[in-house]
Amino acid sequence: MTTPENVIPALIADGNDVDGLLADLDDAQWGLPTPSEGWTIAHQVAHLAATFHLAAMAASQPEGFVAMTKQLSPDFGANVDAAMAPFLAAPPQVLLGHWRSERANAEQALASVPAGKVVPWLVRPLPATVLAAAGMMELFGHGQDIADALGVRREFTDRIAHLVGFAVRTWDFGYLSRNLTPPEVEFRFELTLPSGAPFVSGPENAEQRITGPSVDFCLLVTRRRHRDDLDLVATGPDAEQWLNIAQAYRGPAGPGRRPGQFATAHRP
């Protein structure tokens, strides 16, 4: 059963899965392009290392984290580039070591936060368990880019329910990132986890519904597949619009993926 108490072990396991994609790469493979335009595998790992560094700081040094955020540029892309730069400057095997260290620090720091206590974050303060689920979202999206660059098919477990829950919690981010007003309706989400177990959220009688496989849902909200290539069904006009703009992160949506960019045979 997926509960807030087991999100840290799930975060660790997902991190191990991504690490497994990286462990045996040679230096040339670290330079392979990924579906994120202009980003190599090294860029993906540098971004993950930077994000986990921030999560560790938020959980273990909240005052320092808040002070740091006050120095950030209003330019989102510039902040991302600056955070990645020191990691990206390292040779591949050193970068791999940095990624592993930052992961371990974040996992330990998040696990040490008392239950119910919130920690500061870039958008708003969050319970440490929710920030851990956000970390799983980062691992899912950037891990998928790495897997796509390598031509690797990923396998998922019901741990993905933590990410689904996070995406449901942040269902309005797609609107907010585009300066749109979220509709004043409640959505019903009826998704199927990899084991076949159901994940349901929202009123049973909701007119706006999203149904389909949970993995497809996560590919949608991380914008790693176009909705046309996923087995998700929207019922209602608001749900239909949502499938076009869904994202589980704040900041620019980016171009996402093109319809048909990935053949069905190569879907995760």
Descriptive report:
By secondary structure, this protein is of the alpha+beta class. The protein folds into two domains: 147 residues, Four Helix Bundle (Hemerythrin (Met), subunit A); 107 residues, Nonspecific Lipid-transfer Protein, Chain A (2-Layer Sandwich), CATH 3.30.1050. The chain is built from eleven helices and six strands. The strands form two sheets. It has a four-stranded mixed β-sheet. The chain has a two-stranded antiparallel sheet with strand order 1-2. A hairpin with a 5-residue loop joins strand 3 and strand 4. Helix 3 packs across helix 4, helix 3 packs across helix 5 and helix 3 packs parallel to helix 6. The chain is globular and about 50 Å long. The protein starts with 6 loop residues before the first helix and ends in a 23-residue tail after the last helix. The mean pLDDT is 94.
Write the layout of secondary structure elements.
Blueprint: H1 7-22, H2 27-30, H3 41-60, H4 62-69, H5 76-88, H6 92-112, E1 118-119, E2 126-127, H7 128-150, H8 160-169, H9 173-176, E3 187-192, E4 198-201, E5 208-213, H10 214-221, E6 233-235, H11 237-245
Parallel strand pairs: 3-5
Antiparallel strand pairs: 1-2, 3-4, 5-6
Helix pairs in contact: 1-6, 1-7, 3-4, 3-5, 3-6, 3-7, 7-8, 8-10
